[in-house]
Design brief:
heterodimer; A: alpha/beta; five-stranded antiparallel sheet; 13 helices; 43% helix; globular; disordered N terminus; B: alpha/beta; six-stranded parallel sheet; five-stranded mixed sheet; 12 helices; 11 strands; elongated
Chain lengths: 385, 271
């Protein structure tokens, strides 16, 4: 990687230099900090010059260096890194919302420099590699260019290879600077996911489950299944937010099983020291599409995948496979020290004060806002008349 | 659910005898506690769940019938009585403080055209407003055709009672409560369609009482208000619990035109 230069895509690579509707997803891999800042700054500067909205979600040190390099440009948007990357399964969705908000506000295109804070050992890397691959689908239709920053010094070869295979664009260095170009090592998500190892939950599942719910036959059983899961998790002291997430995922998968699978449905739950595992098994044919649930069906499209979209984002990992007992969906939620108890807990600092109010007074406040909005709309309608 | 939520003109939608008994029990408990008269109108073959529910609230059906606290009437008797006013006045004259009338509405719909049924409902609704009467209409939602479910939901928008969904209409719009999931989407759909018809330019949904909302229910909220929003209407989703708000945001319900979410996180940003 050389000093900062022209980061425009090579001629013929597709979409031109400025606005467009395609997602351009780059890996920015570096081994020493002095390689990183010039390239990252040039990436953001190019966006600023093209009239795009530049966003960075980095650690404070890199943020400060980039702000310095960009002359403290007021157009630079600093996103909360811990919010953007709170968990791998949710990050694409969080970014999708942030990007949409910028586009809705008038941006022609958004440019994001993000530094993923990987934790949790090999399982953690698996989660983030899965994210890096599937984000190509989740953000596919948005006018956004991203550069994902990874310090690859000392990383095992399999992780580095995975990062390279998950990104369709890379930066190529030459004497004139760094150029964005298509990545020859890129693998389509469907193929890439097949290279990731199986979940390490198998050992846990060898033990008797904490909870086993048998004979679930219809959707009317859903509240009871959710209640049994919640009660069991509360009984072992699982934090409310963590429990709520996996219960929500399980509810979606159970509904899929009773609607699309073949009853009876079997639900099992295990709790280990570092993860919760819930499996949902039915004797139906299941589904083969490994990408189901990584895109949100548009309104008017078939609903298929909507529940899995929610299920994938409210746990850390969702695997589906056929076994001797039938078709099983396995949900895994990691229990990591320091992790927010609720998927959104780290993103709600501004709302924390409001949560300190009683739920009823919060609701009252929301209704007051609704009253004001309705009043405003009525006034506008009156003015129009 | 508070005691008052079992007063007034309500619609109990059930899918099994178990659910019907579970709905009838708190309603009958009010009568038991307050010494109110109970009138069940429907075919004798549909009485068994009522008898079980009476026993569940410690009212011996035989003795209560003998004492005049419980009456079982053929539906035709209620329909022919001009709306039950005389029946209610007789009960009050006998010393009962109030009357609870349970109606097998699906049975009524099997002998009346929907517009005739609606006229009867209006008369009974008036009775609830002018006399000490609570009315519990009941339908088996698992077999009622969607057009008829839509019909009864529209009439009873103020007071639907279902294991997963309860409604109330007031200053804060349509208040929904319960656990909304794939098992209740048809009822949710007809309820929201009816609410949109009744709303002005804004349909406000008070979600404070919703304890769970799954992807199927969230899609239903979107799809059943499509026509309303396409015609320029706005749907305000107000005061969801944190977990429900998370679901609505993950499913991007609030990014659709005319859909405004007022919750903890970025309230009303698209308003």
């Amino acid at each position: 990687m050389s000093a900062a230069g022209d980061l425009r895509p090579d001629a013929g690579s597709g979409s031109g230099s400025g606005s467009g509707s395609d997602f351009r997803h780059h890996a920015l891999l570096y081994e020493t900090p002095d390689q990183l800042v010039p390239t990252a700054a040039a990436f953001l500067r190019e966006g600023i010059e093209a009239g795009e909205v530049p966003v960075m979600a980095c650690n404070s040190e890199l943020s400060a260096a980039l702000q310095e390099a960009l002359g403290r440009d007021s157009r630079l948007v600093v996103a909360d890194r811990s919010e953007t990357y709170a968990r791998a399964s949710r990050s694409a969705s969080v970014q999708r919302r942030m990007i949409r908000e910028q586009l809705d506000a008038g941006a022609s295109r958004v440019r994001v420099l993000g530094e993923v804070p990987v934790e949790g050992g090999p399982d953690g890397w698996d989660d983030w590699l899965r994210y890096e691959s599937t984000v190509n689908l989740t953000l596919a239709r948005l006018a956004v260019t991203t550069a994902c920053v990874y310090d690859v010094a000392g990383l095992p070869p399999w992780i580095r290879l995975g990062l390279e295979q998950a990104h369709p664009y890379v930066f190529r260095s030459d004497p004139a600077g760094d150029h964005s170009e298509p990545n020859p090592q890129y693998m389509e998500p469907r193929r890439f996911l097949g290279t990731l190892p199986n979940s390490t939950a198998d050992a846990l599942e060898a033990a008797p489950p904490l909870l086993q719910v048998t004979g679930v036959r219809g959707s009317e059983a859903l509240p009871q299944v959710r209640a049994q899961l919640s009660d069991t998790l509360a009984g072992i002291g699982t934090a409310d937010g963590v429990a709520a997430g996996i219960v929500k995922s399980a509810g979606e998968v159970v509904l899929n099983a009773v609607v699309h699978g073949r009853p009876p449905v079997l639900v099992r739950l295990w709790a280990g020291a570092d993860q919760l595992v819930c499996t949902v098994t039915d004797s139906g044919p299941g589904f083969d599409d490994v990408l189901l649930g990584y895109t949100l069906p548009e309104p008017g499209q078939a609903r298929s995948g909507t529940g899995l979209w929610l299920a994938r984002q409210t746990c850390d990992r969702l695997d589906a496979f056929r076994g001797p007992d039938g078709f099983t969906v396995r949900l895994v939620t990691h229990l990591r020290a320091g992790r927010p108890s609720h998927p959104d807990a780290s993103t709600r600092s501004e709302a924390a004060g409001e949560r300190a109010q009683s739920p009823q007074s919060r609701a009252d406040e929301m209704h007051r806002q609704a009253d004001l909005l309705e009043q405003r709309w009525r006034s506008s309608a009156g003015e129009v008349r | 659910m508070s005691e008052t939520e079992w007063d007034g003109h309500l619609l109990l939608v059930y899918r099994s005898d178990t659910e019907r008994i579970a709905g009838l029990t708190p309603w009958l408990r009010q009568a038991s506690v307050k010494g109110e008269k109970i009138v069940y109108t429907g075919a004798s073959r549909t009485q068994r769940p009522v008898l079980e529910a009476l026993e569940a609230v410690d009212l011996d059906p035989a003795r209560a019938t003998r004492d005049g606290q419980v009456d079982f009437l053929p539906l035709a008797d209620l329909l022919d009585s001009g709306g039950g006013e005389a029946l209610v006045e007789r009960a009050v004259a006998d010393g009962f403080p109030a009357v609870r009338i349970a109606v097998a509405s699906d049975e009524a719909l099997s002998v009346l055209e929907p517009d005739q049924h609606e006229r009867v409902e209006r008369v009974l609704d008036g009775l609830c407003r002018t006399h000490p009467v609570s009315l519990l209409c009941q339908v088996d939602g698992s077999v009622l055709p969607k057009t008829l479910l839509s019909h009864v939901a529209r009439i009873h928008l103020d007071g639907i009672r279902h294991p997963a969904l309860r409604t109330a209409f007031g200053d804060r719009g349509l208040a929904l409560s319960g656990e909304l999931d794939g098992g209740s989407t048809e009822l949710l759909s007809v309820t929201l369609e009816a609410a949109a018809l009744r709303a002005g330019p804004v349909l406000r949904l008070d979600l404070f009482g919703v304890d769970h909302l799954d992807a199927a229910a969230a899609r239903t909220v979107l799809e059943s208000t499509n026509d309303f929003r396409a015609a320029g209407g706005r749907v305000l989703l107000v005061a969801p619990q944190e977990s429900v708000e998370e679901t609505l945001r993950v499913l991007e319900v609030d990014v659709h035109d005319g859909m405004i979410l007022l919750g903890l996180d970025g309230a009303g940003s698209r308003a």
